[in-house]
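Incident log, entry 3
Record: F-box domain-containing protein (396 residues)
Problem: checksum mismatch between cached and fresh output.
Input:
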Amino acid sequence: METQTYLLEAMQTEILARLPLKTISRFKSVCKTWKSTLESAYFRHLFLSLHRNSSSSSSSWSLLHGADELIAFHGCKTWGLPKSPASLIPHPFKRYLCGDCDYVDSSGGLVLLSDGGDESYCYVGNPVSQQWVKIPPPPPSDPTGDDADVFGLVTRLDDDGVVLSFKVIRLVSVQWTNNDYLLGVLLYSSETGIWTSKVVHCPHQITNMYYINLNGTVYFTCLSEPGVLAAHDFYSESDQFRVVQLPDYPDYSKDYKRTLTMSGGFVVYVRSQAKKDETVLKIWRLDNDDDTWQLLWEVSLQIIGNYAPVAMHPFDIATAYLWNYTILGHQDCFIDESVCKKSVDEIWDPRSLLDFRVCIWFCPFVMPRWMKPVPRPPQAEMIDTTSLLSYATAIH
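Fresh output:
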């Protein structure tokens, strides 16, 4: 009898592990036994091993320009979402549509919203699970807190892509001295529930605040020294930016179009060059350990035109997205061509006076491969999307 019960439970677990995450999350409410099973480390590893080997199991993702969605991928077996991840962010929270709660950043499947009604507050949450953490303002004892803008979100993930913690970044000040660029920030940690201040030094002036972030590290490209990156891990104790030369440094040719993006857990640098009868595409990957670049692809595409690299597939390093009034490499994706045209034309306007530009304005919003509750800071208030929408409507 015990053997029969064990076999039935094992078969039940195998069946559940083949279902999408959204379905699994609902089954947690069936009974205590199912909840315990579905939240166990064994079940998580089983689920990931089964879905890792499926060609259609890549997690859902969206490519964003600000709060506008250019490319969307959904319907995969990992999540089973009927809509793209970005479409799950309620419209009142999207920038330019309503001044009450603005989309600011995303990392590790979490989204950061600023509060336009009360700028001292912001929110971090998962739009799929509809869980949100209300981030308190900096302490009154910090004179810089009131003037600090909500700037960014970084997360720390484990090997399975589970969010272990997050940090909210508020930008306090930027200052250029004779030989040093100082970035003053306030950091809120989900592990401690408190704000701390930090000043990070960079030998080059950061000329705009656009960036990408990956596993706790923020990467800037537009510097006073063209052809380099400034990177800082906000989970580290260091007060210095790392300076990384791009692989084609110091080639400043305006014939190139360049994009810094992410794929497969790495920072990826993509460069295209239009020639008379072809387009040459090169793709490099940044080594996470020693900041060296590995050339992954150098291909000549039999397409004529000034194709601009937009992004890489977040999970498939062999898929790149190029734009010249059409998107190349978009199997199973939804493309909003009107948004693509507007965004790309704005970035690569031929009237631009910049001699060297690396585009980092297209940022992926990627759902994690496993759903876990949003990390809850000590004494933080947790609310759902409905409550947050009601609040935004009341303020408006």
